[in-house]
Amino acid sequence: MYKLLIADDHPLFREAIGRVIRDGFEDSEILETQDLESTLALTQQHEDLDLILLDLNMPGMHGLSGLLQLRNEAPTIPVVIISAEEEKQVILQAVTYGAVGFITKSSPREQMTHAIAQILDGNIYLPSDIIRASGTARRNSPRDEHAITTQQLEALTRKQLQVLEHMTRGESNKMIAYHLDIAETTVKAHVSAILRKLGVHNRVQAILSASDIDFSAYLKRGPRPGD
Asked: Which residues does the UniProt record annotate as the domain HTH luxR-type (predicted)?
């Protein structure tokens, strides 16, 4: 079904995530490496890989530098970071450097399966519990270049606010469409409008910017033209 590469220097973790993949995605082919050098070599031999699950701390990585090197040498293969790291800034930087998602090693089995499925479906996955953490510190930081203003939020229609709220939960367009009972194409249109109105360039920036918003307060307002 899929061909995935687990790049991690801990055999027990490779075995554990391998079981998650085999149980959730039957007939998938799983390859394994334990350092950056062998990972780079294997990507040259298997350009049809559907996904690389990459540990930030295995030999040769030097943190995000290894991710950059991998993205430069194998730009067509999606990479998701699987790490014990739970710092929001590291997660943001990883996605900025080209990762399609970030899965923490402490995630429950079901959450890992959901995250991998979402990424294989072409979406970005971020751990919503971490992204939404420390909201007060972000809100009070004058240097937060992606902070959302009240005026920008007021510019969103009620439906766009609902879509944005679901985005901050890490949901894909398909999941949002299901929960809001609207077409997936309509969700995509709302997402595009949200990015434009918030003045951000991509979905990740929108999610991070909105991670500490009390959506219930804005959704209680009465309908306005355009809602």
From this structure: 149-214
